[in-house]
């Protein structure tokens, strides 16, 4: 006993390290293989547990190879004696008489086929039985037995030769794989099917002779031919498989991928990308909205194609998103009560600002609603909107839900809403999920091994539903032109095109799925005539056609209310004096904010101007020539930028000035001259001493009354050309005073109180 213990210490078993000696297999949601990766020695070996293997295979294996496996101590003396007799009779080794334990010993410690080698094998078998249980020894055999070529283990053999898991083996397949390790080269079913069939039938006959299988089962099994798949590597979702195999140190990596769907989408994407040239590629993500699980991942439509950089995974690649961020700003602005769905914007050239983008088609629409601006992807209204909301704030909101933008500039600026920052297809798919998921953003999940991350709120359920409704109210893009939506399965979608026609995007959402599509070139070279709706849009529509119809839209929150609003003011009918154009708006809890002033970023429009007219209402009067018959009227005022773009029915004529109302200062007070402000200068700082208020007297000597005085967006007065303002501790900080006279002239004064 002492000698045995000493030998055991001096010559320990060469047991394989846990997991490190296995290849990795990435599988779809049903366990079908997507892609396998060999171990560091190039061996294909997939880990499998005893309980995961077909019981019929275990019956065949133990009956044929080692009937008394669970009874002997690692060596079967009867088998060894029979092998010795055959050796003496034949003059050469006929059979080794090896038990499964002895075969495992030889796998772990190879030795020559000699008497010394057999002795070593016996000793190692006894050592195995000392250290391991029978099930542990059998598991080593199941994982390391040779099955031909560089395949080892029952699972690798089953996946390669039969394209199925070892848990799904039929009787004929179980018998074939039970005998294959006996002579892996001679019995290989892909090379020697008839020899393999004869060996298989021999196993089946022994199972019948020992009463393990019935004659009927044997007959059925023998009737099946030996069929083997060609030795090839399964490469479904290859880029996702590579990504997950590097992330997770597991031998079996499960995914949520639907393999048949993945193959259909890969084919669609490849054909569609080819329409745009051999160097053009595409990427597609399909996300199941309920758990944010990725069920299809096409990182490259032309995987392995050198002409289109097919090895580059475009799903996580940082690219310019074009206009695809506009729906998110739209929804955030709804929550901030900056807009409702029908808020007025003026799509017109920006003249008095450093940033002067154009629309994609270089034309201008004039007055448009927020919803129309979103569907038409107009740039000017959304630059105005992000100036009101705040570029940094917008970027912070996206970072909060773990989808940060990537900036080249030092800090965010309004260009980010037109593609002036980087993001990825994966981030866009995650963000658009909020439109269907009550405003919550959940990180995408690629595998059940990924930790579950709690969702974060980006927008309210009301803003999410209004955004969905607006984006779903447009036809779907197809190769043959726009196609009407299915009312039972509406898809909210948005396209985008990066600067220079380098990237085309289309992202769509219905009640069950999010589909995100990118099309372009990995090296960012431009593509002539590339536009999101025409290039990526049709592929998005084709992909949705591969999915089960949702047949329902997201439920409308009870707090989304329809209100009749008026242009140009923007507020509800009952809140405004003039209703030049009446529209039905979707609002959050009925709140209808004023129209944003396109002439003054961040300010709301004061959409009416009071004036005095004569008794007949035909001539305008000034303050110095009023009489007891004068009437006070109010007219609707549109933003100055709308001049020349308003339809005739939107224009309210202003009565001409009465000839009896001329003033010596009239020429000096021409509507074309600038307002002169007395009493305060822009940029001035007022310091309060001992907390005592400062009385500020401001006068506009050349203003034509009435004059609107607006402090920080609040109307203080709309009468005379002078204002008395008390600066107290309540006004500490930065302020903006906006002055507008009856001719529409305006002056902005910035000052601070310390």
Automatic annotation (TrEMBL):
Q: Does the keyword Protease apply?
A: yes
Group of enzyme by EC: transferase
Q: Which cellular component terms (GO) are annotated to the entry? A: outer membrane-bounded periplasmic space
Q: What is its EC number?
A: 2.4.99.28
- Could you state one GO biological process linked to this protein? peptidoglycan biosynthetic process
Q: What is this protein called?
A: peptidoglycan glycosyltransferase
The reactions it catalyses are: [GlcNAc-(1->4)-Mur2Ac(oyl-L-Ala-gamma-D-Glu-L-Lys-D-Ala-D-Ala)](n)-di-trans,octa-cis-undecaprenyl diphosphate + beta-D-GlcNAc-(1->4)-Mur2Ac(oyl-L-Ala-gamma-D-Glu-L-Lys-D-Ala-D-Ala)-di-trans,octa-cis-undecaprenyl diphosphate = [GlcNAc-(1->4)-Mur2Ac(oyl-L-Ala-gamma-D-Glu-L-Lys-D-Ala-D-Ala)](n+1)-di-trans,octa-cis-undecaprenyl diphosphate + di-trans,octa-cis-undecaprenyl diphosphate + H(+)
For this UniProt record, the keywords arranged alphabetically read as follows: Carboxypeptidase, Glycosyltransferase, Hydrolase, Multifunctional enzyme, Protease, Transferase
Q: Which family does it belong to?
A: In the C-terminal section; belongs to the transpeptidase family. In the N-terminal section; belongs to the glycosyltransferase 51 family.
Ranges for domain Penicillin-binding C-terminal: 667-751
Instruction: Please report the organism this UniProt entry assigns to the protein.
Output: Umboniibacter marinipuniceus
Q: Name one GO molecular function term.
A: penicillin binding
Where would I find the Penicillin-binding protein transpeptidase domain in this sequence?
283-498
Q: In which pathway does it act?
A: Cell wall biogenesis; peptidoglycan biosynthesis
Q: Which residues form the Glycosyl transferase family domain?
A: 42-207
């Amino acid at each position: 006993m002492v000698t045995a213990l000493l030998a055991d210490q001096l010559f320990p078993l060469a047991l394989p390290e846990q997991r490190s000696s296995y290849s990795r297999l990435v599988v779809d949601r049903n366990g079908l293989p997507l892609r396998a990766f060999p171990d560091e020695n190039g061996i294909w070996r997939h880990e499998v547990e005893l309980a995961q293997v077909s019981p019929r295979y275990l019956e065949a294996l133990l009956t044929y190879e080692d009937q008394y496996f669970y009874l002997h101590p690692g060596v079967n003396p009867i088998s060894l004696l029979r092998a010795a007799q055959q050796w003496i009779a034949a003059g050469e080794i006929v059979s080794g008489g090896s038990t499964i334990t002895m075969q495992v010993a030889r796998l772990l410690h190879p030795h020559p086929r000699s008497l010394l080698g057999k002795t070593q094998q016996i000793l190692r078998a006894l050592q195995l039985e000392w250290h391991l249980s029978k099930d542990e020894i059998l598991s080593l055999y199941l994982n390391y037995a040779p099955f031909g070529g560089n395949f080892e283990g029952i699972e690798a053999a089953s996946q390669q030769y039969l394209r199925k898991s070892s848990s799904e083996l039929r009787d004929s397949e179980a018998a074939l794989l039970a005998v294959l390790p006996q002579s892996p080269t001679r019995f290989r079913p892909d090379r020697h099917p008839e020899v393999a069939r004869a060996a298989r039938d021999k196993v089946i006959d022994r199972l019948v002779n020992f009463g393990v299988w019935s004659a009927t089962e044997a007959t059925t099994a023998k009737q099946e031919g030996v069929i083997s798949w060609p030795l090839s590597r399964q490469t479904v979702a290859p880029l996702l498989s590579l990504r997950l195999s590097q992330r997770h140190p597991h031998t079996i990596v499960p995914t949520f991928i639907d393999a048949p769907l993945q193959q259909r989408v890969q084919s669609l994407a490849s054909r569609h990308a080819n329409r745009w040239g051999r160097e053009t590629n595409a990427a597609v993500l399909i996300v199941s909205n309920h758990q944010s699980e990725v069920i299809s991942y096409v990182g490259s439509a032309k995987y392995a194609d050198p002409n289109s950089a097919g090895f580059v995974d475009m799903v996580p690649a940082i690219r310019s998103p074009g206009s695809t961020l506009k729906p998110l700003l739209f929804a955030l602005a709804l929550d901030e009560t900056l807009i409702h769905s029908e808020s007025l914007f003026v799509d017109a050239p920006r003249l008095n600002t450093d940033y002067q983008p154009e629309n994609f088609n270089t034309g201008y629409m004039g007055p448009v609603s927020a919803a129309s601006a979103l569907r038409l992807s107009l740039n000017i209204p959304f630059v105005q909107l992000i100036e009101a909301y705040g570029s940094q704030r917008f970027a912070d909101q996206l970072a909060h839900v773990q989808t940060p933008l990537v900036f080249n500039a030092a800090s965010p600026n309004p260009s980010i809403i037109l593609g002036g920052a980087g993001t990825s297809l994966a981030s866009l798919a995650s963000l658009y999920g909020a439109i269907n998921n009550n405003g919550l953003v959940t990180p995408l999940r690629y595998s059940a091994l990924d930790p579950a991350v709690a969702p974060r709120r980006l927008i309210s359920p009301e803003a999410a539903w209004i955004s969905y409704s607006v984006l779903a109210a447009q036809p779907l893009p197809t190769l043959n032109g726009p196609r009407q939506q299915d009312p039972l399965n509406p898809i909210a979608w948005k396209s985008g095109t990066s600067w220079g026609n380098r990237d085309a995007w289309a992202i769509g959402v219905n009640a069950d799925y999010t589909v995100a599509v990118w099309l372009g070139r990995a090296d960012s070279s431009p593509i002539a005539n590339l536009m999101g709706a025409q290039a990526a849009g049709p592929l998005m529509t084709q992909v949705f056609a591969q999915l089960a119809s949702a047949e329902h839209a997201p439920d409308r929150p009870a707090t989304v209310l329809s209100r009749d609003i008026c242009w140009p003011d923007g507020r509800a009918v009952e809140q405004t004096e003039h209703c030049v154009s009446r529209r039905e708006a979707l609002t959050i809890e009925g709140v209808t904010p004023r129209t944003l002033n396109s002439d003054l970023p961040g300010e709301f429009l004061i959409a009416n101007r009071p004036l005095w007219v004569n008794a007949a209402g035909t001539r305008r009067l000034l303050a110095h020539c009023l009489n007891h018959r004068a009437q006070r009227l109010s007219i609707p005022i549109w933003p100055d930028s709308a001049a020349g773009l308003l339809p005739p029915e939107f224009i309210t004529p202003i009565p001409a000035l009465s000839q009896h109302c001329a003033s010596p200062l009239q020429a000096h007070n021409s509507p074309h001259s600038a307002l002169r402000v007395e009493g305060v200068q822009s940029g001035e700082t007022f310091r309060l001493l001992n907390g005592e208020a400062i009385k500020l007297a401001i006068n506009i000597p050349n203003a034509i009354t009435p004059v609107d005085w607006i402090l920080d967006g609040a109307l203080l007065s709309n009468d005379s050309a002078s204002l008395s303002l008390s600066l107290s501790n309540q006004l500490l900080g930065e302020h903006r005073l906006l002055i507008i006279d009856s001719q529409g002239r305006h002056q902005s004064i910035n000052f601070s109180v310390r």
